[in-house]
């Protein structure tokens, strides 16, 4: 126990050094790692080394002192600068600390302001993001927005292929982005341009155009896929019909000059010229439509399916309506032409027209015959009636025949003044038996010479012969009996007019209103008898024979029963002969 107590009283080496040192040392300073390491080294030294250690320490201290002195002398500016910098750094660190404290106190307000700014700028940032996105895809957006303008330009320049491609691209975009309002708006604008292109293509069908242009227009309409094949064919026929109608309406100018005041011949020529122009326009227009429709809709490649029957029905309906239109015009116009020479020219033109249409299955020559037969019948009958009217006006009193421009009693010419010329006033020719026989055996186209003695009979005969000469150009065989009946009716009416004149002349003689002498009265009666005989025995047989034999080449003695004089004419001639004999005896 005493040994342990003694051990506890022994001091440590640092304590001994501290206590033995003349300077006051803190024992704790000798416990630093460097000091501890040095003290450990001292304890390991031998006695001699330990005794020499102070000398080495003194030497090292002197060297260090010299080195420090030298360093201080040579590097004192650095030490001064270091001191100044250290002082400045210390003050700066103090200021930094103060600033950091201020910053820390201001950070909550900064955070609050930053959040407010972020919230307020969120809309602006969204707009900027959109703008940046638009700027990034500017080229693509420009291409999309340019679609309507490009499509409109293509339609305006008739570049329909590019227009259809652009429209298809717009439809593709609309299907890919169904909820995008911009794409849908572009699609709507493109649809409007496509509708304009549709109208433009349909308008081509209504304008003057040849087959290639129409084929191209129909091809693009098919690609647009807005009309079925039947609807497209109907639209084609409607458009071409409208253009044909406009062409036919333009022909109406040919009827200019028909005002009701021109001559009958001029009106006939105008109607004939109008009919010819109309037939030419109709033939060209309808033939073009038929050939164009056949090429576009009916002619199919050998490996394609045949055209539907509805397409053939549409073409048949079109041609039927147009044929009916032509026939209606001919029914209305041909009777106004009347002149067989003009009708003959029209018939020739229509025959060629029907022959050309026969190549496309539209031969209408069979329906032309009844129309022209009716027109010839009515025209020749009218000319017979006009000639008879002129004859009857010759026999009427002067004021009646001259539209009553003077007041006063009627002035009727004497038979010698009316029927004979000044050179043959004293010669009143009565047909001889030989002359009567020559009517049946002589040339049917040579008038009897005796008619030249009576100018009114010559005028009337020439009027009838002019009608027959015109009929030579177009004389339907089926009209022989009808025309002969019309001629007999006209001759009967002319005979009744002559009888009326004779009756009026006899009444004047019986009333004593004539101041002529007995010789003059006898001579006038001879003229009446001669005119009546020449009319009934020469003029009537000659004109009837001129129609039957001269025009149709039918011998009257061969079918005399069929060509027998009508009862109306027989009665009129019997009355005329009776009146002639009565006037001569009176």
From TrEMBL:
GO biological process: intra-Golgi vesicle-mediated transport; protein transport
SUPFAM superfamilies hit by this protein: Cullin repeat-like
A Pfam family of this chain: Dor1
Biased composition (Low complexity): 16-33
GO CC annotations, alphabetized: Golgi membrane; Golgi transport complex
Coiled-coil region: 559-586
Record's bilayer topology term: Peripheral membrane protein
Localization annotation: Golgi apparatus membrane
Keywords, alphabetical: Coiled coil, Golgi apparatus, Membrane, Protein transport, Transport
InterPro entries named in the record: COG8, Cullin_repeat-like_dom_sf
Composition bias type Basic and acidic residues, residue spans: 1-10
Region (Disordered): 1-33, 393-424
Similarity annotation: Belongs to the COG8 family.
Designated name of the protein: Conserved oligomeric Golgi complex subunit 8
Species of provenance: Pycnoporus cinnabarinus
């Amino acid at each position: 126990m005493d040994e342990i107590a003694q051990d506890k009283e022994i001091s440590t080496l640092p304590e001994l050094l501290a206590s033995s040192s003349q300077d006051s040392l803190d024992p704790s300073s000798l416990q630093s790692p460097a000091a501890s390491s040095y003290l450990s080294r001292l304890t390991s030294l031998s006695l001699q080394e330990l005794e020499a250690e102070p000398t080495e320490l003194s030497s090292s201290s002197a060297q260090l002192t010299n080195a420090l002195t030298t360093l201080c002398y040579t590097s004192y500016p650095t030490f001064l600068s270091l001191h100044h910098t250290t002082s400045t750094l210390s003050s700066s660190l103090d200021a930094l600390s103060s600033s950091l404290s201020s910053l820390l106190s201001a950070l909550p307000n900064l955070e609050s302001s930053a959040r407010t700014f972020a919230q307020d700028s969120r809309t602006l940032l969204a707009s900027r993001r959109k703008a940046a996105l638009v700027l990034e895809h500017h080229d693509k957006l420009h291409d999309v927005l340019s679609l309507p303008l490009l499509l409109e330009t293509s339609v305006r320049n008739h570049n329909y292929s590019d227009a259809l491609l652009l429209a298809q691209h717009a439809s593709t975009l609309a299907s890919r982005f169904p909820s995008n309002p911009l794409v849908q708006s572009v699609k709507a604008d493109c649809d409007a341009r496509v509708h304009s292109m549709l109208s433009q293509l349909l308008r081509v069908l209504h304008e003057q155009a040849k087959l290639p242009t129409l084929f191209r227009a129909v091809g693009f309409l098919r690609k647009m896929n807005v009309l079925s094949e039947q609807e497209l064919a109907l639209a084609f026929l409607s458009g071409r019909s409208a253009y044909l109608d406009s062409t036919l309406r333009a022909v109406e100018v040919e009827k200019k000059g028909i005002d009701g005041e021109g001559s009958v011949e001029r009106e006939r020529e105008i109607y004939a010229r109008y009919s010819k122009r109309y037939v030419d326009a109709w033939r060209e227009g309808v033939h073009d439509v038929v050939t164009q429709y056949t090429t576009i809709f009916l002619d199919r490649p050998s490996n394609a399916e045949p055209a539907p029957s509805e397409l053939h029905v549409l073409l048949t309906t079109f041609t039927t309506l147009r044929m009916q239109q032509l026939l209606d015009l001919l029914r209305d116009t041909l009777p106004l032409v009347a002149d067989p020479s003009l009708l003959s020219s029209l018939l020739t033109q229509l025959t060629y027209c029907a022959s050309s249409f026969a190549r496309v299955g539209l031969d209408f020559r069979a329906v032309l015959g009844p129309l022209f037969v009716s027109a010839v019948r009515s025209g020749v009958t009218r000319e017979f009636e006009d000639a008879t009217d002129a004859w009857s006006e010759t026999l009427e009193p002067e004021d009646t025949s001259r539209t009553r421009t003077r007041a006063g009693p009627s002035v009727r010419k004497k038979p010698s003044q009316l029927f004979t010329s000044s050179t043959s006033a004293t010669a009143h020719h009565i047909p001889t038996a030989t002359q009567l026989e020559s009517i049946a055996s002589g040339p049917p186209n040579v008038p009897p010479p005796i008619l030249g003695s009576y100018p009114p009979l010559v005028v009337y005969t020439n009027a009838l012969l002019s009608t027959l000469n015109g009929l030579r150009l177009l004389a339907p065989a089926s009209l022989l009996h009808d025309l002969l009946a019309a001629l007999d009716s006209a001759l009967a009416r002319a005979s009744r007019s002559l009888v009326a004149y004779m009756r009026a002349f006899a009444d004047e003689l019986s009333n004593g209103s004539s101041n002529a002498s007995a010789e003059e009265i006898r001579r006038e009666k001879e003229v009446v008898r001669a005119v009546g005989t020449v009319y009934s025995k020469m003029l009537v047989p000659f004109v009837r024979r001129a129609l039957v034999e001269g025009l149709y080449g039918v011998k009257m003695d061969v079918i005399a029963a069929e060509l027998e004089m009508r009862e109306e004419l027989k009665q009129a001639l019997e009355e005329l002969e009776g009146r002639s004999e009565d006037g001569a005896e009176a």
